[in-house]
Fold this protein.
Amino acid sequence: MKNSEMEQDILKVLVTEEEIHSRVQELGAELYRRFEGKKPLFLGVLKGSFVFMTDLVRACQLKSDIEFIAVSSYQNATVSSGRVQIIHDLQQDITGRDLIIVEDILDSGHTLAFLKQYFLTKGAASITIVTLLDKPARRAKAIAADLAGFVVPDEFVVGYGLDYCQLYRNVPYIGVLKPEVYSG
Ligand code: IMP
Ligand code: MG
């Protein structure tokens, strides 16, 4: 299926659509078990989590609501600057809420370390971190996900919400770009 203009930029597929689908169903079922009888708030970290979020909430039929926060730490580079900025803040009071933070990828850990602290100061009762991808090789902060979809090697990945320079978010699988895409 590598025939679209965009897909010609993909060097290799790391996680297929089918693998993502079945893992997301498992994650949804696990969250259901953990939160049955409760009303957690799914809190997506924009923009990267937007695809994962829509699949995950449908894989977990709890009476839950959703919220988003948008942060930026990359400014179009492929390595985190370490400075996390809130671009779009919470639109509701989260005091006493059980949060399920939904992230696309846990990389250096700067983003989630910052957000976890931020949500605790805002009064969250509990925080569960769910990340589609975990890239442990580059962790700079002592932070771990409670649930992770896939562990990925130390390569910059795109697709299923993840971007390079705001592109490739709509690629339906997780892939690695050809080197010339970065240099060009
Ligand atoms: P961290 O703060 O370094 O853990 O990075 C978290 C954010 O950086 C993620 O939510 C992604 O938006 C972005 N990011 C980290 N690694 C990658 C990657 O390999 N591809 C695309 N985005 C990434
Ligand atoms: Mg992100």
About this structure: The beta strands are 10-15, 41-46, 65-72, 85-88, 98-106, 126-134, 147-151, 157-158, 174-177. Residues 45, 48, 104 surround magnesium ion (ligand 2) (CB under 6 Å). Residues 158 and 164 are 7 Å apart (CA to CA).
